[in-house]
## 1
Amino acid sequence: MNTGFLTIYWRDMLRFVRFRALLFSSLVQPALWLAFFGIAMSNNFERLTATMPVVPDVRTVGYLTFIGAGVIAMTTLFTSLFGGTVLLFDKNWGLMRETLSSPLPRIHVIIGIGLSGMTKSFIQAAVIMGFGLLLGVEFFEGYTLVQILYSLVGIMVFVGTFSLGFLFLSAAIAITMESPEGMQAVITLLTMPFFFTSNALYPVDSFPPVLRALSTINPLTHLVSGIRYFAIGSDFSAIGIRYTYTQEGILLSYFALLAFAGIMFFIARWRFTKVTVT
């Protein structure tokens, strides 16, 4: 079995660890985002929903807990979309030419970058969850140790599948673009629609019909739903709205992420077979 992709994976992880500024900012930034934006928005939403009736016999969670899953998903989205940037720098510095001219199959470059980006997403998700618990995010409330471990595995499966899909998309964009500025513009253009048509920050029930339809096919919506199901529960209320998740619905969300990752993988593979680096 050819394990050349592990070389690509290890090289990218070494670069991630050795660049201390990158490592520090990638871990601290989402935690600070949750601390400042989450707490500020939580206070505003708690004030707005204070007069709303409480749903009887249903656990009520604060907005900070509600947005905690959204911050994990948002960070995974940003990290994954920018994960392919390393390929663009390798191409501009001549390193990609050497890699593609080696006996290493091109598909291993895609897999290696995908696995390294997925590992980074796991680390960031763990940091956000740990920091969120310190801030008062009510994840895993009333769970047994076995349930916590099961939920952590479920969250990481969702995060990993989602990150792979967007890493493959990022790799396809990176191998096509010629400048970091152009890639940044494309990624920024993609990020906003995915983020603001999802349920990461607010309910989608009050969206206009077109945006509500877009949210149902948005991979970020499926990721947030999966995280909330495992971290908060299958039945809870937040911001005056009751949320009910079923196992069938969560499985459907996961298969949607899996299908998205598969499609992006084939697109990235197609772009790598067509690219010529001089």
## 2
Amino acid sequence: MLQTRPRVALFVTCLVDLYRPNVGFSAIALLEEAGCQVEVPRAQTCCGQPAYNSGDRQTAKDLARAVIDEFLHYDHVVVPSGSCGGMISHHYPALFDDDPEYRGKAEALGAKTHELVSFLTDVRGMEGVAARFEGVVTYHDSCSGLRELGVKAQPRKLLGSMPGVVVKEMADAEICCGFGGTFCVKYPEISTRMVTDKAKSIAATGADTLLAGDLGCLLNMAGRLKREGVPMKVRHVAEVLAGRTEEAPAIGEVS
């Protein structure tokens, strides 16, 4: 692992802040384990993806400018979400085609923005984690993390370093769960069919825990699994890797 101590800003994401703070605390623990100085900028807001996907480019641009101003001076920006990470790193620059100054800033921010687990492995050189977990898990590849950021092998690598973890791959792990941000609101019937198919693939693994790196996908799948009567614990992968599964009930469960 690299010995330098970079100054890293955690972009928490709206869903983590509102629904699953344990993911944020898990991300901090993992980043500190990887030797980073972690800060959580208090002025951060939404990355702008819902507005962007809905065609409201001006609101997306205003939000993006605020994120750029708040995060640009850090060594790295780390996001426990492929969708928010993809928005910042891939879509911000095009919002500022009419503003050369901010386009340059957006490109600079995008170059230093990383999904959490890929940052741990690809940038910090983490080969394993100190936490322990016992169970059979299956992993869902979220669309933005996989297709925009290349996140696939990295979470499986770190999970494989944990002696008590058995990873059982589901069929069609790379197929969308149907959440897609605003997609599930615009096309509820299609979304429901997609997540129902996903739930069947998850259940067929016989795993006891479903993991993924995007909370939106996890909320969607947890809800469908519960409606289908599948007894499956659902967690963000960071919670397992950080050893913080006792800090919060599984998604959809009550304490």
